[in-house]
């Protein structure tokens, strides 16, 4: 295992609403299936009515019973990604740091970002597409799991949580923002109000990254 020399930072990125502006993996996948209204209802249940991440996944799995790999690819390629993602990750690594994506979204979507240069990508564990198995509830991530994964990555890379930078947009990032010292709210909702050191509104990750690039952790 390669560990950092000195004080290389670990940058932790949320996916839905953060790297994908104004949308989410589930929304983009559902769009390919003509199920935008159905997924919107599930999203409302999650955001407003206490639907748990594992129950959301179980119900989404039923909506997506006919999902194909081609549709996942189309959803990924058609998502409204922020500009500059690859460039930011390349610069982080050039500075001696690491970058990771931690998301509640399905791993079969999140892990495609490995091809963009992120060091590690962590999503909820879903069955392979096309589905022949149900969702395994214990494999679905939640806000607490984001903190656990961040701490595990710190241990693997030989750094402390004080050397992390977190980027997020919503309530699923609040627990991580509470333990990471340098945080950036990216096109964020009210749940991160007052919790972040920096705030960014816009469509280019390079601009959000610039807010912390030279700051001391």
Walk me through the structure.
This protein has helices spanning 25-32, 36-48, 53-63, 69-78, 85-94, 107-110, 143-157, 174-179, 205-210, and strands at 10-13, 98-106, 120-124, 164-168, 182-186, 198-200. It is of the alpha/beta class and 217 residues long. The protein folds into 2 domains: 10-22 and 81-210, 3-Layer(aba) Sandwich (Rossmann fold), CATH 3.40.50; 25-77. It has a 6-stranded parallel sheet, with helices on both faces. Helix 1 packs antiparallel against helix 2 (36-48). Residues 1-6 have low confidence and may be disordered.
- Terminal-residue CA separation: 24 Å
Name the CATH architecture of the largest domain.
Answer: 3-Layer(aba) Sandwich
What would the CATH topology of the largest domain be?
Answer: Rossmann fold
Average pLDDT for all residues: 92
Shape: globular
What's the order of the H and E elements? EHHHHHEHEHEHEEH
Low-confidence residue ranges: 1-6
Radius of gyration: 17 Å
Strand content: 5-15%
Instruction: Give the strand tally.
Output: 6
| Total count of helical runs of at least 4 residues | 9
CATH class placement of the largest domain: Alpha Beta
Main beta sheet: strand number and arrangement? 6 strands, parallel
Total number of distinct structural domains:
2
Strand numbers in spatial order across the main sheet: 3-2-1-4-5-6
Structural class: alpha/beta
Q: What's the CATH superfamily of the largest domain, by name?
A: HAD superfamily/HAD-like
| Helix residue percentage | 25-40%
